[in-house]
Amino acid sequence: MKELIPILDGNGDLSRIFERGKLNSGEILGTVKKIIDDVRNRGDKALFEYTTKFDKISLDSESVKATREEIDEAYRAVPQKTLNALRRAKENIFEFHKRQKRKDDIVTAGGKTTGILYRPVERAGLYVPGGKAAYPSSVLMCALPAVVAGVSDIIMTTPAGGGLNPLTLVAANECGVSKIYKVGGAQAIAAMAYGTETVPKASVISGPGNIYVALAKREIYGAAGIDMIAGPSEILIIADNTANAKFVAADLLSQAEHDELAMSLLITDSRELAEKVKEELYTQLKTLERAAIAEKSLCDYGSIVVVKDIDRAVELANKVAPEHLELCIKDREKYLCKITNAGAVFLGNYSPEPLGDYYAGTNHVLPTSGTAAFCSALGVDSYMKRISLIEYDSNSLEAAAEDIIALAQAEGLTAHANSVRTRIIKETV
């Protein structure tokens, strides 16, 4: 049997963790571009053809939309306990994102006004995965920030090849999604980016997906805004000898079960903990429904790295810039201030990553593949625009005119200079 997960020396060759899978497109990109061009040019006809080809279902302009009857049936299929949990999670997520809402910032002094106006986009398009796993929680994470932002129309696409997930439909209805379309993949992204006869054009497209979806979002950027280009899920845990090996192993597996390309990484200054966690991984893996996926993920992309101290662990973590970072260490507050690159940070032994995935209120749509070095979690700002505001009175413009004209002339833009000059030259009768 192939080793489940290697234990690496923190001062040795760490190419395994730094050369992990990025968005390796290969031949897929050509397929994605063809799909996008086809949907852009032929609209619904191409969209439905690709849905038949990939999802094995036949749709038209009416059947592509989830009906009120289907939504009502979904409510009947969802246990009350699950619905109650969903609603409590929704409240946490909504309240957290309300704290992100910005107010217009306008300052007037001495005849000069400058400011920023914050305005929501007109329509948000959500992509919610199906396939290997349906993620109703992603509906909450994508829709609720848009609701807080004040987006007036929120639509959603989700593949329905194996039937629509009832909880996904319920979550969309609970969040006020106006229309749900039974399409997925690159064709769904293209439909929301350019619009078809049935699917309206969205201003911003958000939500996770497979490599086809990620590449499609990258290709349509400019026709619509996007939240980010997300790759496979990942977790990095920094742990010392105070950590619980069972907890750490369980959290590593919580990401490994997502898909075969997910990365689960432990960095510790305790060789004893490293060995215990490795044993726990073998034990717990046997109990998982998605054990085959988790095992391949750990074999191909999982690692345990033993370092001399926690300072070195933090140094490596910032270089990795993980999607999820857990600090299971004694002095976590001391080291938190040294963390510069992470999508979300979980502190202590009782803040497992699934807490953020489902319930705490923070968003689980996070930057991956090292992009946390410059990218942030999906949030209210993802659905809003900043509009600059400028107003000068005549005296203020006259006071600034000489500087503006000098700068414009330095760039050879004489019409710019003249635009100011014509306002300050006193006309004579």
The structural class is alpha/beta
| Fraction of residues in helix | 40-55%
Major sheet summary line: 6 strands, parallel
SS summary, helix count: 17
Average pLDDT confidence is: 95
Q: Segments where pLDDT lies below 50 for 5+ residues?
A: none
Oligomeric nature of the chains: single chain
Q: Please count the beta strands (DSSP E, at least 2 residues each).
A: 14
- Strands ordered across the widest β-sheet: 1-11-10-9-12-13
Described by the principal axes of the CA atoms, the overall outline is globular
N-to-C terminal Cα separation, in Å?
97 Å
Radius of gyration: 25 Å
Beta content: 15-25%
Q: How is this structure best summarized?
A:
The chain has helices at 15-18, 28-42, 44-55, 68-77, 80-98, 136-149, 166-174, 185-194, 211-220, 245-256, 271-285, 291-301, 310-320, 332-336, 353-358, 394-410, 414-424, and strands spanning 7-9, 105-109, 112-120, 123-127, 153-157, 179-181, 204-206, 225-226, 234-239, 263-268, 303-306, 324-328, 344-347, 384-392. The chain has 429 residues and is an alpha/beta fold. α2 (28-42) packs across α8 (185-194).
